[in-house]
Amino acid sequence: MAVPTSTSTKNSKLKTANLGFPRMGRERELKFALEGYWSGKSSADDLLSVAKTLRAEHWRLQKTAGIDFIPSNDFSSYDQVLDTLVMVGATPERFGTGPVTLDRYFAMARNSREQTAMEMTKWFDTNYHYLVPEWSAGIPFKVDTAKLLGELREARALGIETRPVLIGPLTLLLLGKGVDGFDPLALLPNVIAAYEDVLAQLHAEKVEWVQIDEPILATDLREGAADAFRTAYAALTKTPIRLMLTTYFDAIGDNLSLAVELGTAGIHIDAVRAPEQLTSVAAALKPTQLLSVGVVEGRNIWLTDFSYASSLLSAAVAALGEDRVIVAPSSSLLHVPHDLRSETKLPARLRGWLRFAEEKLAEIAALGSADADAATANAAAIADRAAAETTVNPAVRLQLGLLNSSDFARASVYADRTPIQRAELGLPLFPTTTIGSFPQTAEVRKHRAAHKHGHETTEVYEAFLRTSIEDCIRQQESIGLDVLVHGEFERNDMVEYFAEFLDGFAFTENGWVQSYGSRCVKPPVIYGDVARPKSMTVKWTEYARSLTSRPMKGMLTGPITILQWSFVRNDIPRKATAWQIGLALRDEVRDLEAAGIRVIQVDEPALREGLPLRRANWDVYLDWAVKAFKLATSSVGNGTQIHTHMCYCEFDDILPAIAALDADVISMETARSQMELLEAFRAHGYPNEIGPGVYDIHSPRVPDTAEMKKLLDLALQVLKPEQIWVNPDCGLKTRGWPETVEALTNMCQAASQLRASSAA
Fold this sequence. Notes:
TIM Barrel, 21 strands, disordered N terminus
């Protein structure tokens, strides 16, 4: 990757900006406030008070760090897309009309007695989930700026001037879905009018700058989108507010001339993901336009290479002048943890290579001021990381070098495998199973924490696990499930659990990142080559198998999901790390099979998430990502059935890659979308077996047998009976036992009714 050159070697003071800050709080205060409110243990006022306190803390942190453009309206009690729908008055018609109350807001996100929640999917190629807008002709578009203006005024009351953040109108429209085939762009005039109203109200508040996020410009735009952009911004730029058009996660690419033509006062680019675009963007800007250069990684936790970042900034200054260049993170810092202060157990050397949100603010400020002392310290840390021998495992690198085509393919094709599997497993038509985890009750969490912190002996803890597993097996047998799981009571997280067994990983104490709503994840840190010193899952899966005559399913997390849901090292290609994980999982799969486990599920919910934003880059990624999965799963015999699970993403456009995984069974989320996804599988002619989720586990709502049967009847319209498995749409760890038993009982009854009608 070429580094832009410049005769300048040092920047004077440049303006600095932040694009967004983590919402949860240093101690996840927002998470606990939300869950307290949802459970009825605290009031709405309690929740709102916590939220207000966090916003104030975050604004002060950014002000103290020396950030010039501090965002407001980046805070959300659930999701910024939902907030934007409320702001422009475009919430789905099925949830009612009029001002959106707090309870109605959460009903849209989390289900209610009357309605299933809005669909969730991944925010571009991140692990953050947004709520998908539902576009229909009757949306009223009645603007509500209470949150937007309220937070602006909160910050001003603290003496802090902010730059409000808005999701742009075209990103909002194009990330949604039309109801019954409705074209979202048909609503463009309504959306433009709503945004004009919002900007007019901000202008009345004497707001000078607004950050308007249009990350859709880093993708391949659909037909009609470019003209829609021109129409929208011709109207929006008439408001006397300076708009910072913000793109991230990839290069603007062939949308550059369009982006410049829109006439906003500035453009932000991601110069971490796509530094090569700097020269062309700087050259294309109009003489009055500013350039915000994202040189500090907003998506990962490694320290910034100041030498390289400074070279980018120097090139920008040489092309545009200091007054037109702003230093910023590549994207919002929503995707990284809050700060490093509480990380007392990380190896000191590794900790010196990491930067969380607060530390990234300091990096932005130091780059903006060309701080010589900070640059010297940064150079020393960069050199220390490069010299570290602990990041290389020669044996793993040798294994990678010896791989050949046979390592990436099953011994026989699916058509030859499936009769063997059906005969050996003895399963009925429409077999029932779950995705893996069962309720992680307070008691489970208490025992696990006590053991982790040395307050409970291994003997006591493992006795508890054996009891929990046996109870879970008996419950599944009583419910009538066909393929059982052990419940995963020993697992804290579907990625972190495996990472704890693997070399090359480190773990934070408080490195929490929001995934959706109050759901936070604590991604492990991949700092070195990955290897599996010992078995990870065989002990408890084999024990569970010994308790039942029914098939027991081994549960693993796939290589791409472990990669995507970790903070991945950035000093070697991601492909190399993915294949290292694939090798480690291959050893585990072999050991499970040797222990008599004939159904093994390797979950890959993040396969679609890792897809590059530009189609031109898809084939390369999908080739090595699919091979990582096949490397992990292809060594088993024909009688061993490989499952995989995917959820909350758009599969239609990668179905050839999903088919190439060659999993015997794929399960997925389809309950919220009413089996809509299956049509794509039918059109593609997908030959293998599919478990479409028949109920949404992200809600305490328990659908009855008739509702699940109706979904399965829809599935039968596009799939053959022998293709269909019956399962929930995701794992059950967040649910309670009573609702879980009731829902699974209804599910098994629906499968039984389907078998009866099929036999008739």
